[in-house]
Design a protein that fits this description.
The complex is a heterodimer. Chain A is mainly β. Chain A contains no helices and 10 strands. The mean pLDDT of chain B is about 95. Classes of the chains: A mainly beta, B mainly beta.
């Protein structure tokens, strides 16, 4: 597609429920990132996929968080047993390559705002 | 580990004036990229400008320019002729060999008419 698409744009859920957030990157982009942005805060790195390499999961805050990327395209971020502190905007971004080839400019989606009651 | 520091939480500038946003970073890498991203109220992050560490020349994009001081690990953004549409949150960011983009906490810029 023309841009990075994320769904849902807003999600309200009850504490303890599982949620899935979807990201559809720009076609042909090999790198995909998930970030979390809490109210008024900077962006916290969660996970990074690059081509067929093993993902960098070093930013996932707990084992309740997981992400997968199917067929090198669409990615799903899953949060199990949601807690109130999970409330944030979850941003997805993609790029056409890594930093070595200078193709490291990220294009961001509009984000999914998650509210856990 | 890399860190990015934006010590000013917010700034305000009169329309048509010039404003400078500060950013410092820390890294042991010799080659890396630095970025400024803009996030307007719509939430969409937009790239403003990019600087490659091995390039001496400061990057410029129309009204936006940077002052990159590699030895001091400083990377400030200058916005000339500020416009109302420049009102947004601005994030400084760093990426090195691990390809992860590390962001500062951001600064809220308000442009007054």
């Amino acid at each position: 597609g023309a841009g990075v698409s994320q769904s849902p744009s807003n999600k309200v859920t009850e504490k303890g429920k599982d949620v899935e957030l979807r990201c559809d990157p720009i076609s042909g982009h090999t790198a995909l990132y998930w970030y979390r942005q809490s109210l008024g805060q900077g962006l916290e790195f969660l996970i990074y996929f690059q081509g067929n390499s093993a993902p960098d999961k070093s930013g996932l805050p707990s084992d309740r968080f997981s992400a997968e990327r199917t067929g090198g395209s669409v990615s799903t971020l899953t949060i199990q047993r949601t807690q109130q502190e999970d409330s944030a905007v979850y941003l997805c971004a993609s790029s056409s390559g890594g930093w070595r080839d200078g193709a490291n400019v990220l294009t961001f989606g509009a984000g999914s705002r998650l509210t856990v009651l | 580990a890399q860190t990015v520091t934006q010590s000013q939480p917010e700034m305000s500038v009169q329309e048509a004036e010039t404003v400078t946003l500060s950013c410092t970073y820390d890294t042991s890498e010799s080659n890396y990229y630095l970025f400024w991203y803009k996030q307007p109220p719509s939430r969409q992050m937009i790239l403003v400008i990019r600087q490659e560490a091995y390039k001496q020349q400061n990057a410029t994009e129309n009204r936006f320019s940077v002052n990159f001081q590699k030895a001091a690990k400083s990377f400030s953004l200058k916005i000339s002729d500020s416009q109302l549409g420049d009102t947004a949150m601005y994030f400084c960011a760093f990426t090195g060999a691990n390809s992860k983009l590390t962001f500062g906490k951001g600064i809220t810029l308000s442009v007054r008419p």
